[in-house]
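Batch manifest line 311
LIGAND: S-adenosylmethionine
JOB: complex structure
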Amino acid sequence: MSEGAPQVHLSVLLQEAVEALAVKPGGIYVDATFGRGGHSREILARLGPQGRLVALDRDPAAIAAGRMLDDARFTLAHAAFGRIAAVLDGFDVGQVDGVLLDLGMSSPQLDEAERGFSFRYDAPLDMRMDTSRGETAAEWLEQAPQAEIERVIRDYGEERFAHAIAEAVVALRQQCRISSTRQFAALVEKAVRTREPGKHPATRSFQALRIHINQELEELSLALPACAARLVAGGRLVVISFHSLEDRIVKRFLREQSQPARLPARLPVRAADLPEPPLRLIGRALRASAAEVAANPRARSAVMRVAEKRR
Ligand SMILES: C[S@@+](CC[C@H](N)C(=O)[O-])C[C@H]1O[C@@H](n2cnc3c(N)ncnc32)[C@H](O)[C@@H]1O
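JOB STATUS: finished
ARTIFACT:
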């Protein structure tokens, strides 16, 4: 798909996520992953005239799309959500009533060949969500040590053939620059010796490079405590993740923050004397319905988790 193609993104778990935020008409909310604004529009529809929505995205194309959203209650910032505290400080916003993180990629990012996220198109191997800064995947592959390439592909792609792929990268880059999606996909296809049904052999390696180039797991680990710290009592944190590595981080964070501290051994302290944990889990992990997955296959791996601030 080219630059001229429509910039469509079907929001995943749209009603469920905004419902989980329990929007109060006069509340202040943060959509930390604006994308094409599907969730933001739904939040605005539920806010009254005194409400406020701050949205963030690290992708300049998302920010450009967001400029069309003309609403006095809405503020948009080009920033990574790991910097949420600084962004809110910059807008003079203290505590908020809810934060939504709809992680991963938007459809325009995946569908625009020139972003280099997909092996479906031949394009420069870029993969930066924020195209205004940082190293592209091609630049990283040009100089990263073999052991680091192997670690990234193994850990972030959960790829059994990471060693063979890293070896093939180092061998090929001695002959030419690995600068296109097709070149990288072909190299991976040769190195991966078994086939997973219904899955392109380069799927795992593309996911791994994308996670690494955008520091996705580090960003998430920074953002979760920062978001929780900004919530008012009764404020909601809603997170939609799209793969097990993200969901593991979310699940662990929410578990740690919602369980009472351990009783110190051999000290006369009663459970009732310990401080309450800061968050309370709301419901169980939620997945998209069969009907949503049929209409939007991207929803099939989505998992939504919700927590509420206690104090
Ligand atoms: C799944 S899309 C969000 C779609 C959006 N909820 C909607 O309904 O249109 C994820 C968006 O999050 C952005 N994103 C991913 N990681 C980010 C980060 N660390 N900081 C800010 N934005 C990020 C991506 O650029 C992408 O636009």
